[in-house]
From TrEMBL:
Residues 1-21 form the signal peptide. This is Cytochrome c. The keyword Protease does not apply. InterPro entries: Cyt_c-like_dom, Cyt_c-like_dom_sf. GO terms for molecular function: electron transfer activity; heme binding; metal ion binding. It comes from Ferrimonas aestuarii. Residues 25-96 form the Cytochrome c domain. Keywords: Heme, Iron, Metal-binding, Signal. Gene3D superfamilies: Cytochrome c-like domain. It comes from the Bacteria.
Length: 106
């Protein structure tokens, strides 16, 4: 019985992570891209410091991607396709501090 509940709830989590109402970006791809392109510099001991979706609010993430565009190191954003950036933005936005699912999939 317990195992069954566990399977059902993790299944629900997996579905909710991928079935969020998106605005053009693919958060599932975004998560993968984030790990690939951002994590190297954004972990506790790295130069960019620890960064998770929960580090910012939804509005802050939008502002970061629309205006700041990674000013600290512009070459990071310049090296990524618009679609990839949109996917990453969507992933971070969907799991922002004030989202329905703060960092649950981060
Ligand atoms: C080459 C290393 C590097 C990579 C790759 C990188 N960053 Fe950064 N990032 C930095 C550094 C360095 C800073 C400045 C940190 C500081 O100000 O202390 C920064 C700052 C930031 C900030 C601002 C932090 C704040 O406190 O507001 C955000 C948000 C951010 N990066 C997101 C990203 C995202 C998203 C990606 C992947 C697309 C990414 N970074 C990839 C090095 C990197």
């Amino acid at each position: 019985m317990k195992t069954h509940t566990l399977i059902v709830s993790s299944l629900a989590l997996a579905i909710s992570c991928s079935a969020i109402a998106v605005e053009g970006g693919n958060p599932k791809k975004g998560k993968h891209l984030y790990k690939k392109h951002c994590k190297a510099c954004h972990s506790q001991s790295a130069q960019g410091g620890e960064l998770t979706p929960m580090s910012k609010t939804m509005a802050q993430w939008d502002r970061f991607f629309q205006r700041n565009k990674h000013k600290a190191k512009p070459e990071v954003f310049q090296g990524l396709a618009d679609k990839a950036l949109l996917d990453i933005q969507q992933f971070l936005y969907n799991h922002a501090a004030d989202s329905d699912q703060p960092a649950t999939c981060g």
